[in-house]
Amino acid sequence: MISFKETLKVKSYETDINANLKLYSFMNFAQEAAGLHADSLGFGYDNLIQTNTAWVLSRIHVKFLKLPRWKDEISLETWHKGTDRLFGFRDFEVLDSLGEKIILATSSWLVINTRTRRLQRMENIMGENTEGSDSRHAIEEAAERLVSPQEMEFVRTRVVAFSDVDINRHTNNAKYTEWALDCIKEEVITTIRITDLIINFNTESRMGDSIDFYKYDTPETMFIEGKRGDTSIFQFKLNYVKL
């Protein structure tokens, strides 16, 4: 299976107040599809956990050309693009019912030891076997390493709760998108169209951790960072246009 494809119908609980797909919902779609495809290629969760290892998302860049709406039928495709030392690369493409591209994404993944939490080199996990990889690009450039602005404003603090944590016993990657968007005022978030989303997942957070959120705005971008003390947990950048 060189790629994984599935057809989805957007549900009401996956949409926002305007009936558009939530960015958080796309992140859930992407991680589920990635897991199913990795399973079919022989390096999914069930395979890795036997050696006390697991995939974790490190960086992702998503381009939103158009957001699907409640009840829309969409087609999601994902494929594995090979590895480079510590990173495994995976792209995503979402089409609407007319076959038009509406969401494009590229992502970089790491493998950790679930006991020590240390990073594992890709060749130790997958060897030199590139079977199942596809050199196509949804977005050609890999998701960028973000640099935080110098001056950021404190917004809020949140404690990681039981509902935020996944099977890897850390905060699920999609939750950071939900948390970051909650840092944006309603009068702002309802008057913009998000065109790009870039996230760096820098350090794990776990149940009971206290995360401080900081924000920096420009007329075309928003930058949000979550920190535990002086440690950066995640960085989140939005590009947008005014409606």
Give a verbal description of the structure.
This protein has 243 residues and is α+β, with helices and mostly antiparallel strands. The chain has two domains: 1-143, Thiol Ester Dehydrase, Chain A; 145-243, Thiol Ester Dehydrase, Chain A, CATH 3.10.129.10. The protein has helices at 23-41, 45-48, 122-126, 173-181, 186-189; strands at residues 4-9, 53-64, 73-84, 87-95, 101-113, 119-120, 153-159, 192-201, 210-217, 221-228, 231-242.
CATH topology of the largest domain: Thiol Ester Dehydrase, Chain A
- Give the H and E element order: EHHEEEEEHEHHEEEE
Separate helix tally: 5
Number of strands: 11
What's the story with the biggest beta sheet?
A: 11 strands, antiparallel
Mean pLDDT: 93
Question: Approximately what portion of the residues adopt beta-strand conformation?
Answer: 35-45%
CATH architectural grouping of the largest domain = Roll
Summary tags:
2 domains; Thiol Ester Dehydrase, Chain A; 5 helices; alpha+beta; 243 residues; globular; 11-stranded antiparallel sheet; 11 strands
Topology readout:
Layout: E1 4-9, H1 23-41, H2 45-48, E2 53-64, E3 73-84, E4 87-95, E5 101-113, E6 119-120, H3 122-126, E7 153-159, H4 173-181, H5 186-189, E8 192-201, E9 210-217, E10 221-228, E11 231-242
Antiparallel strand pairs: 1-3, 2-5, 2-8, 3-4, 4-5, 5-6, 7-9, 8-11, 9-10, 10-11
Helix pairs in contact: 1-4
